[in-house]
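call fold(seq) -> tokens
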Amino acid sequence: MGVNATVASVRQEYWVPQLRQLSKSVIHHCIICKKTQGRLYRVNIAPPLPEFRVQRKQPFSMTGVDYTGALITKEKHQNPEKAYIVLFTCPVTRGIHIKLVKDLSCDSFLMVFRKFCSRQGFPSLMLSDNATTFVSTSVYLKNMAESSLVQEHLNAIECKWKFIPARAPWFGAIWERLIGLLKTCLKKVIGQAFLGFSELSCIVTELLAIINDRRSRPVGYSDAQSFDFRK
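ret:
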């Protein structure tokens, strides 16, 4: 019982001075109450941000990449098919670049990566989830990073691919937070509707402009500096 119910139950037979304060103390030190009603274990404070997140560099010179879960698209008189969204984000400015792809193959990723480089420039460092974390698409990202075709393309532009440390979820929060924001916007816009690939691609492009219009202060930059990611 809570404090009020405990006080009412005791006063049916006894009159105890300062019973309310005494009840609060007893309930506060009750082991059973702590087990059933206690707060969750507080997570330790995350360590300082890594060095690449506080360096003053051009947007997307360091880029994090991740995939969303499978989305269902359906053209007229055709069977439903899966589609995925590739999200590139800048760890410093928090700007994003997203594209819709039909599969998780290396060829599809390279096409999207080439489009990204043509618009935002060549990154010097690529970041993604570690394959040991509980993210299904990280396995595909690891296979892509180890692919000889992808490695040849990255070496040509002098770009390094780095995985975040294992059991360090705050590193992946750079893109996971934006993935969650993108999914929330998709749920509000699409709902339970089935769209074709071209229609979904159009909506994803509109969401790109909406998310990049949000007000955020890049790490290491003043309020007077702004960047246009709507490309």
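The chain has a mean pLDDT of 80.
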